[in-house]
Amino acid sequence: MTGSLPHVSESVLDQLRDDVANNISRYTGEGFRDLAREQGWAIIAKIPVDLDCLSELDGGERTAQADLRNTRIVWQALGKLTPSLANEEQIWVRLSHVEAFAYTQRRWLRNPADADAVTKDVVTHFFAPGQTGIRDDHAISRLWWNGFVARHCYPEDPDKALGYLLSSADVRSNLVERIWLTSRRKLTNGLFRLMDSTPWVLSSEANFRSLMKTLNLRGAGVVFEAMSQAGIDDFLEACVGSAREKAS
After folding, report:
1. Under a CB-based contact definition with an 8 Å cutoff, are residues 117 and 111 in contact?
2. 79: Cα within 13 Å, side-chain hemisphere
3. Which of 44, 119, 214, 223 makes a 20 to 30 Å CA pair with 104?
């Protein structure tokens, strides 16, 4: 069901952050849904979303395939979100504490019987301070950014790009976590084309790491935004050739 996007107020966010240790029983139990309509918990942004989809998230698996399925669900629910809004912690804190609480709890609270471990996991995955927290750590926002990078950088076939992106932790860390790379849309687009045309790239972690090391060395100072698609393809093919030689 399509609705509008809720978020918590800054004061609620601050209170939740300060009270993590006092709320352990909520984080390991029934959560915060009873507070969802209280003052400061449901500030509405006029962005069309389908938050009912978030009930389909499955936190029972900690695999790349599970992340792939869950990314598709998050994008179905929140695909109208803009990158600017997607950098707002108050949105993600609301979702992890209410609509996507069950998923976040199951996926990220690794040892519910250990209060110290719960506190650490809550701080990392229920909150999203700064760009790194939003992009890489928050239970839901990290999935949204997976989908965004795939669509932004490989609009030709974003679902295929998403599969490549989540094929290993190394691929995601290089294509999502490295700001210098994802900001160069043309180069990232070329990397997705290379993965599609050259199976060697993803046939082993060692191959991919060797390629990225070569790319980092050869790409320093290169203005990829000014290059043609063919020029980027030639550059990446040369990187593959060099990486293969070093790997042999």
Report:
1. yes
2. 14
3. 44
User: What kind and span of H or E run contains 216?
Assistant: helix 205-219
What CA–CA distance (Å, rounded) separates 248 from 240?
A: 12
Listing DSSP states for 89-108 in one string gives HHHHHHHHHTTTHHHHHHHH
Burial group, residue 198, by CB count within 10 angstroms (0-12, 13-18, 19+): middle
Please, are residues 183 and 176 in contact by the beta-carbon 8 Å criterion?
Answer: no
Residue, of 209 and 177, whose pLDDT is higher: 209
Q: Are 209 and 244 in contact (CB under 8 A)?
A: no
Residue type, 138: H
Q: Which pLDDT value is given to residue 176?
A: 80
- Here the tokens at position 138 are 């928050």
Helix (H) or strand (E) holding 19: none
Using the predicted structure, report yes or no on whether residue 178 has a pLDDT greater than 80.
no
CA distances (Å), origin 46, targets 6, 43, 157, 211, 217: 9, 10, 29, 43, 45
pLDDT tens, residue by residue, 124-152? 999 999 888 999 999 999 999 999 999 99
This prediction's pTM: 0.92
Do 147 and 132 form a contact (C-beta atoms < 8 A)? no
**Phi/psi zone of residue 221: left (φ > 0), alpha (ψ -120 to 50 degrees), beta?**
left
Asked if 59 contacts 100 with a C-beta cutoff of 8 angstroms, the reply is: no
